[in-house]
Amino acid sequence: MMSAAREEKITVMVRLRPLNKKEIAANEATDWECINDTTILYTNTLRQGLNIPSAYSFDRVYGGECPTRKVYQDGAKEISLSVVKGVNCSIFAYGQTSSGKTYTMTGITEFAVADIFDYISQHEERAFSVKFSAIEIYNEAIRDLLNSDGTSLRLHDDPEKGTVVENATEETLRDYNHLKDLLSVCQAQRKIGETSLNERSSRSHQIIKLTVESCARELLGKENSTTLMASVSFIDLAGSERASQAMSAGSRLKEGCHINKSLLALGTVIRKLSKGRQGGYINYRDSKLTRILQPCLAGNARTAIICTLSPARSHVELTKNTLLFACSAKEVTTKARINVVMSDKAMLKQLQCELARLQTELRNAASNCDCAVMVRKKDVLILKMEKQIQELRKERDLALSRLEHVEASKLEDGSVSDRSAYVRLHSEDDDLKEKLLRRLEDPSDEYYREVECIEIEESANDNHKNKRAEPKHVLGRSDDTNNGETSVSQNVKLRRLNHIHTLPGTSTPHESVFSDLENGSMSSCGSGSTGVQSIPLGEEGSITSISTFFNGLMEVAERQGQVSSAEDSGIMGRDLGHVDEDFERQRKEILVLWETCNVSLVHRTYFYLLFTGDDEADSIYIGVELRRLLYMKDRFSKRHHALDEGETLTLASSRKALHKERKMLSKLVRKRFSEEERTRIYHKFGISVNTKRRRLQLVNALWSNPKDMSHVAESADVVAKLVSFTEQGRVMKEMFGLAFTPLSFLQLRDGIDNITNVPRRGVQKHWYAMQNADLWGSPTEGCVEYIVMVMLVAANAVLKHTIYIVSSKEY
Ligand SMILES: Nc1ncnc2c1ncn2[C@@H]1O[C@H](COP(=O)(O)OP(=O)(O)OP(=O)(O)O)[C@@H](O)[C@H]1O
Fold first, then answer.
1. How many angstroms does the Cα of residue 260 sit away from the middle of ligand 1?
2. Is 527 exposed, middle or buried (0-12, 13-18, 19+ CB in 10 A)?
3. Which of 38, 122, 378, 788 is deepest in the core (most CB within 10 A)?
4. What is the ipTM of this complex?
5. 3 is in an annotated binding site
6. What is this structure's pTM?
């Protein structure tokens, strides 16, 4: 295991030796001067042809008088002692022959080893071992300096350690004296020859290597121990030489060629390394020297190079070459690390930590990618949908249980003995119903006459004739008779209700119901009309309950039955032929608004089929429906408006409810239509009979094009059949959530049917309007207004029918 790499430049030092005896004897001049600790000057400007001397700067520059100890202390000690802390390092000397490499490196090695031993002695808490090995590269062959058999050693490229010399002898150093002995052996073994420049010229590159291992004593021998291991190399290169100067021949010449060749390779590597990435490919395999030195030059090691110089003018070219090499070397960077060797257990533990770290990284990476985010979002969506399904199931069960409760109540109240009897009751005596309907729709019947029952109070600025105008409605009385006591709300006033049919003899009805009629304060708006009817109100002017309201109606009906026998054969007049353009326009507008406001399909169907304009009261309903829808649309369009207290209907909730309704309707398709009918309907709505979800597609297509009147009519037909519109049975209740409406409503409706046997078709739309008024009820102005208006109109209509039936001789 290795720590993070620490990049640093190779430390380059220059050491200028003094002129030796031979040179002095030869009266050699010197042109080199160390002007400070870092700069050396070539002072022979004449020779250079320059006006100023050339200066060379390095980490340290040492003149001839400088002892080796100082060179070691200043530049090599700190690096060489890195070995005891687990960092590889190397110190080597480069220079021409006889420049003082061996002289320098011998001293450096001894000082360094001495300091290493000093360090070891000062750090007893750690157990150290120092191993010594020494090789030389002679004529491109590697020799073991601790082995005298002269066998050439091979180089091996280890994936972890890099290039290693195989089978080199390693001696564990016992002490400093042991080192001295070994150095002597090496010295004796090293190829040294005499040249004209050096009596003891080193003819090989020598590499002395100390490998230092240390471990904390307390962990010694334990499985989880860790060991620091590094090596320091002291490299004494052979000197570059000129054959002419060295006057070498024979074996010396051959040695010189190999030396120069390997030094040339080293110089090339250094030069390329100094250029960084621009240096191009570096072939360390050009020589054994560069292969072995590779870690020192560009790998896991701290390195110091001491370039030795001869001061003699006669060697100036080689000296300059050395300085050029030094200049390149100072640009080279190495990456040293602390080398830790782990025991198996420590390694296992460390690998486990590493595995955990990588797994965390992988998880983090996975969680950051889009795919993972999408999967998580989908999971959340699935959970949400599952929750919704559960809630829908609960709602369904609740609705079914309430429905059963309602039906059970009906069976218990004695009006019908069983379910079949109930159904029969609602479908029997069609002849009678038809007769009654004919009677109701008889245009010659002038039983009713048109009155203005509510005063028109149009604003002068109102360009919309009446139905879209913002109303100021007053219930049951005109302004001139209204003292405010009977208004439903101070703010809710009926401004206008056109063409409401009322009974001509109801100008003095039951006092508890129509007090206004009783006191004769009816406005006489409208030609010849006298009756203004008020619906039953509570003490504070509000509608107390539907029951009260209905009871009032029934009382009026009873009185009418007694007082108007002479008129009962009169006219329940309606202008059936009057379906004005305004009505059609509003109807079309409503069709579009239904779609915009996600109004229930069943509601649309009922409304469409019931309010066709064949009854003049329909214009009231249609006007009110239009106002209601415009109000809804307005509320929906205010996207961020805060819901008023009690307001629950929003665009989203309406959309959701419509979606729910469509799903429910889709479940009825198979039940209500034969296969043949289904095929025909699918075809009509452009749905393939082979599509899996054709039923849902069908209900989705229903009422989807409000501007196509034939589509609207077909949609209404289909929905009417789906919900058994003609039977008004169970399905209608499910669709409209009648299970949630007050029970009294159902009882009232069934009551009036059963008691008076009023033809269903004639009153059902009014009941429908009333029921829906209740369902839509909320404390918003629009809805209250709507409820009041609808109830008034519906009550009037129901009253008409009731009175008619009660007073009818046919009944
Ligand atoms: N700094 C110095 N001070 C005094 N004497 C020195 C110094 N450097 C070298 N010498 C002497 O110079 C001679 C040559 O030195 P050395 O053998 O170390 O050179 P070298 O570079 O190793 O040569 P080669 O490459 O031929 O082996 C030796 O006698 C040595 O004692």
1. 18
2. exposed
3. 788
4. 0.98
5. no
6. 0.48
